[in-house]
Amino acid sequence: MAKKKKSWLNQHLNDGWVREAVKQGYRSRAAFKLEQLDKQDKLFKRGQLVVDLGAVPGGWSQYVARKLQGAGTVIAIDILPMADISGVEFVKGDFNDIEIQNSFADLLNQTKADIVISDMAPNISGVRDKDEAEFSDLFHSILVFIRNNLRPGGNLVVKGFEGVAAAELRHKCKRLFQTVRVRKPEASRDKSREHYLVAKGHLAQYGKQYDEID
Questions:
Q1: Is residue 159 flagged as an active site residue?
Q2: Is residue 17 domain-resident?
Q3: pLDDT digits (tens, 9 = 90+) for 127-141
Q4: pLDDT at residue number 3
Q5: 9 lies in a domain?
Q6: Does 21 map to a domain?
Q7: How many structural domains are present in the chain?
Q8: For every residue of the chain, which 3-state class applies, written as one string?
Q9: For a surface tag, which of 5, 30, 88, 113 has the fewest beta carbons within 10 Å of its beta carbon?
Q10: Which position among 33, 67, 159, 200 bears the catalytic label?
Q11: pTM of the model
């Protein structure tokens, strides 16, 4: 176990994206994944209201705050504590919790988000069926969140993993958005099964599109 941990640490420290994250002052290499998605799909612009679910350690929120340059709102939500980031409002708690939803609504002042982003992933056990079921549950929770908090026409960027459940999850997104694209940014490790769904044009807050996730 110690050898495996040491091997991972050496790989991590020798990762060019990790070194670049340190150089640019990002909290994680994941910031470059979002930057590459943004360049490809033109996700962020000044004046937007952006919500980052499962934001810790904060690399994605950092990138968006820098991109908006104070002309917009970034709200980060996580059950873990997060050190302050300039230009980011932080809500500590589970985004599924009703009290957190109310705090979030107060921050939004009855408006809806322009884009919801999430780089969350469940804790990986190594048992494929169990991991896919947990990921499916997490994805379901995100869809419930956007039903209540993403404006019609808004966008979603969410992490996915290839597997049996992946096609079903993409199908759900296609019922809720005008376009859904699968992306594998350069900064995502080659060996990782992760990909990202970029969904644009939220079709409805409520209605039959959401029947299958209730």
A1: yes
A2: no
A3: 777 777 788 888 889
A4: 45
A5: no
A6: no
A7: 1
A8: CHHHHHHHHHHHHCCHHHHHHHHHCCCCCHHHHHHHHHHHHCCCCCCCEEEEECCCCCHHHHHHHHHHCCCCEEEEEECCCCCCCCCEEEEECCCCCHHHHHHHHHHHCCCCEEEEEECCCCCCCCCHHHHHHHHHHHHHHHHHHHHHHEEEEEEEEEEEECCHHHHHHHHHHHHHEEEEEEECCCCCCCCCCEEEEEEEEECCCCCHHHHHHC
A9: 5
A10: 159
A11: 0.87
Closest alpha carbon to 117 in 20, 5, 41: 41
Say if residues 151 and 114 touch (Cβ distance below 8 Å): yes
Question: Residue with structure tokens 């808004």?
Answer: 154
What tens digit of pLDDT does each residue of 142-168 get? Answer: 998 998 899 999 999 999 887 656 777
pLDDT in tens, 3-24: 444 443 444 445 677 888 888 8
